[in-house]
Structures are given as structure tokens and as C-alpha cells.
Design brief:
This protein is an alpha/beta fold. It contains eight helices and eleven strands. The chain binds S-adenosylmethionine (SAM). The site of S-adenosylmethionine (SAM) has 18 residues, from helix 3 and strand 5.
């Protein structure tokens, strides 16, 4: 599918899919959205419990894409002394030639080599990006995810239900529920009622939270117990 680049309202670049009229991130700000949904309401929320900081935190990202969420998470881990094992699932990796359009390291005032490393690292193996950030990229379809009690946090960042309704079903959320450890947390930018009900149907306790710029609400689902 054809991929184009566009600059979102906070100055960060995202990928636009003209065939679907869909973006990888919010047009109101890719970095702002990622920080709000995945960092603030996902990882930062998870470490409000002191005991959760004490051991490596396992994160699964549904849709590795541009690597923005992995990059922001690695920077956050460094600043906060966390150890992260990050797994990114992705069926259609971004091409090396496309990476140069992404201006995240410049905007985050972080080394460009570090962002490049996320993309240059090998697939299907654990890559030591830094001493506190290990990245495993898995080239797979989300429907193939069969992990059991393996992750503390899931960043659920699939394209919207308008274009990929099959990724927002009870079947997918059951696989996510099974992949989480007990008291694990799933966050997503979506706030759709049908998505919330699908999450609840498979056992999640779901909260509606204020959304990122341009969105009233988002969802956080917890595997309580
Ligand atoms: C909304 S984008 C978000 C990407 C990423 N989180 C980012 O910040 O750039 C969704 C991602 O899911 C991937 N994707 C779409 N359908 C998929 C599927 N069925 N299985 C695996 N990956 C898929 C796309 O290629 C894209 O990278």
C-alpha cells in the first residue's frame, strides 16, 4: 500500500495511507499522542506502583510501525532508571528509505543513531539497544499472537476500526488478555463503545480516560487479579 509523509500539529512527522485516508498517528500531534496514550496512561501509570519498577518491564506493541513508541519508551526508561524488554509486532515493516523522513530524534533532542538502531536491529531476535532497553521485533500478523502471561503492558496501536474492524474484536482482545500477566495494562487511543464492550466481554476492567489533543477520550484496560 502506498505510504506518504505528513507533518502533524506538534511538528512530528507521521505516515499517511492515501488508499485508506488513514494515518499512523493523530494529525493533532504524533509525539503528543504517543506520550499521552502510551507513556502517561500506560508505562507511567504502571510504575506508580513502586514494586513494578523493581524488575524489567515487558511491553508488547501492537504495530511497531515508525518505532515512535519504542523510541519514546527507551528515552523514558533511561530518564527513569527502568529496565524494559520491548516486543514490537508488525506485519508490514517501514522501509529503511522511509526512516529518514521521521524527525523524532531531532524533536526529542536525542541521538539520531539511537532511533536508527531501532530500525536497523534484526527481526526475530532480542537486540540490546542500550543496557536498559532490549528490543525484539516480530514480523507477524496480530492474529498470530499466542503469548501467554508474558507482558506487563500492551500498547495497542492498530489502525482504526473504520479501516481494520477485524483488529478490534473480542477474538483479538482475548489474545491480548491471555498475553498479559495478572494486573497487566492495555492502553489504546480508541474510545469506541464497541471496543470497550469487546474488552469487557473477554474479562478486562476498562476505564475511559481523557484523550490526547483532538480526542475527548481513550481507553485503558486492566487484567485485574
Ligand atoms: C496505527 S499504525 C501504528 C504504528 C506504530 N505504533 C507507530 O507509532 O508508528 C498500525 C501499524 O500496524 C501494522 N499492521 C496493520 N495491520 C496489521 C496486521 N494485521 N498484523 C500486523 N501488523 C499490522 C501497520 O503496518 C502499522 O505499522
Amino acid at each position: 500500500m502506498k505510504r506518504e509523509f505528513l507533518t502533524t500539529q506538534d511538528g512530528s512527522v507521521t505516515i499517511h495511507l492515501p488508499d485508506w485516508n488513514e494515518q499512523y498517528h493523530s494529525i493533532h500531534g504524533a509525539i503528543n499522542e504517543a506520550k499521552h496514550v502510551f507513556l502517561k496512561h500506560g508505562l507511567e501509570f504502571f510504575i506508580t506502583s513502586e514494586e513494578n519498577k523493581a524488575h524489567p518491564i515487558a511491553i508488547l506493541e501492537i504495530g511497531f510501525g515508525t518505532g515512535l513508541n519504542a523510541f519514546l519508551t527507551s528515552l523514558f526508561a533511561k530518564e527513569n532508571g527502568l529496565s524494559i524488554n520491548y516486543t514490537g509486532a508488525e506485519a508490514y515493516p517501514v522501509e529503511p528509505s522511509e526512516i529518514q523522513h521521521l524527525n523524532y530524534s531531532e524533536l526529542m533532542k536525542a541521538p539520531a543513531e539511537m532511533f536508527a538502531l531501532l530500525h536497523e536491529s534484526s527481526w526475530e531476535v532480542a537486540n540490546v539497544i542500550s543496557e536498559d532497553f532490549i528490543l525484539t521485533k516480530r514480523k507477524q500478523f496480530f492474529s498470530e499472537i499466542k503469548d501467554k502471561e508474558a507482558f506487563h503492558i500492551i500498547y495497542f496501536d492498530a489502525f482504526g476500526a473504520r479501516v481494520q474492524p477485524e483488529l478490534w474484536t473480542e477474538e483479538i482482545f482475548r489474545a491480548m488478555f491471555n498475553a498479559l500477566l495478572s494486573n497487566g495494562v492495555l492502553v489504546t487511543y480508541s474510545a469506541k463503545g464497541s471496543v470497550r464492550r469487546a474488552m469487557q466481554a473477554v474479562g478486562f476492567t476498562v476505564e475511559r480516560l481523557p484523550g490526547p489533543p483532538g480526542k475527548r477520550e481513550m481507553l485503558r484496560a486492566i487484567k485485574v487479579g
